[in-house]
Amino acid sequence: MLPQSPPTPQSYQGRTRRVGVEIEFAGLPPQETAKLVLNLFGGEISVVSPHRFKVEGTRWGTFVIELDTQYAHPDAKLLEEVPRMDSEWERQRHQMRVDFHNRTRQLIGDVVTGLVPTEIVCPPVPWDELGELDALFKALYSHGAKGTDASLLYGFGLHLNPEVARLDVADILRQLRAYLLMAEWLRQEIDIDITREVLPHANPFPKPYALKVLALGYAPDLDGLIADYIEFNPTRNRELDLYPLFAYLRPDYPHELLHNKLVKARPTFHYRLPNAQLSQFGWGAVVEWNRWVEVERLAADHDELTRRAEAYVIYHTRSRLTRWAGKLRDWIREARTPS
C-alpha cells in the first residue's frame, strides 16, 4: 500500500510535509527494540539510561525507544540540580542522592518491564516515505512484539503527528471541523479496541464542543480558539490533541496546560486514535495515514465541509424524539426497498 497524497503535500516552509509516528507494544524490551531499529535503518545506539535508548544518525533523524512510564527513567530536573553549597561534603551528599535516584528508577524499570509497554518515538518522516517506515512494524511483530489485539490488558496505540500545512487559524479550524465530522467514521474504520474505548487516552470530543466549533458563525482568533479548546477539553486525552500545536503557536499563552512537561510544542496535529495492530497483515503507518488524509480532503472541500457541518448541527440540536422518528422512517424505507 502506498501513502496517499494530502491536498496540500508541502508544508508552510515549502518542503514535503513530515509525519511523526509513535507506537506502543509489549513483548520486546527497549534494548532489543533499539537493536532492531539499528538493523533496519542504520545509525548508532546511544544509551540514555537503562530503559531509554536512542538510535541516532538514521536517514530521518533520531529514534527514541523507552519504557512508556516516566518512573522508569531518571528525573531530568533532579539531575540538573546543583549542590546547595560549595563544599566537598555537600557535593558528595548531592552525588549520593543522584546515585540513589538513578538506581531506584532503574529498579522500577526492571520490575515493570513486561507490565508497561515499550514505546518507539520515530523521527519525522516525509509522508511519501511512510511505506519505508512500515518495515519497522513487520519486523516488530516477527520478533515477538504484541499489539493492541494480543490481550484485553493491552490498550496500545499508534499516534501520528502530521505536520500542519499552514499556521493560520482559518486552516487549523477547517482541519478541526473536518476531524469532528469524520471522527465517527474513523472509529468505525479503525474498529477501536474495547480496552482503548474504556481507557481515557483517546476520548472523543464532547458534543457541546463539536456543536460550538461546527456552528457556521464560529470564527475565533487564535486566542479564542485556544480558550474554547481548554474550556471543553481540559486534558491531553483526546483523540486529536491540539495542545502541542497551540503550545507552538502561542508559547506564552497563560495557561498551565500549554506548559505541561508532557506537552511537546511542535507544528503538528497529535492524532491519538489508531490501535497498534501489529498482528494485522499489511497494517502500518501508511494505513492510518491514508485514513487521516480523508480528514484533510474534507477540510479542503469548502462546500462539502459547510454542508456537512450545517447538517450535523441541525441533526444534533433536534429533540431526541424527532431524531428517533427520523431513524424509524429510514428503517421503514430500507425495509420496503426490494433487495
In round numbers, the mean pLDDT is: 90
Number of helices: 13
Structural class: alpha+beta
User: How many domains comprise the coordinates?
Assistant: 2
* Uncertain regions spanning at least 5 consecutive residues: none
- Beta-strand portion reads 5-15%
What is the number of beta strands?
Answer: 9
Distance between the termini: 34 Å
Largest sheet: 7 strands, antiparallel
Cα-based radius of gyration, to the nearest Å: 23 Å
Order of helices and strands: EHEEEHHEEHHEHHHHEHEHHH
Which term fits the overall shape?
globular
Query: Could you estimate the helical fraction of the residues in percent?
Result: 40-55%
Write the layout of secondary structure elements.
Elements: E1 18-25, H1 30-41, E2 44-49, E3 52-56, E4 63-67, H2 76-79, H3 88-112, E5 118-121, E6 125-126, H4 130-133, H5 135-142, E7 158-162, H6 169-190, H7 194-198, H8 207-214, H9 222-232, E8 240-241, H10 243-249, E9 270-271, H11 285-300, H12 302-316, H13 320-336
Antiparallel strand pairs: 1-5, 1-6, 1-7, 2-3, 3-4, 4-5, 8-9
Helix pairs in contact: 1-5, 6-11, 6-12
Features:
13 helices, globular, 9 strands
Short account of what is shown:
This protein is of the alpha+beta class and 339 residues long.
Describe this structure in words.
The chain is of the alpha+beta class. The protein has two domains: 225 residues; 37 residues. Helix content is 45%, strand content 12%. The chain contains 13 helices and nine strands. Strands 1, 2, 3, 4, 5, 6 and 7 form a seven-stranded antiparallel sheet that branches. It has a two-stranded antiparallel sheet with strand order 8-9. Strand 2 and strand 3 form a beta hairpin. The longest helix has 25 residues. It is globular. It starts with 17 loop residues before the first strand and ends with a helix. The model has no long low-confidence stretch (mean pLDDT 90).
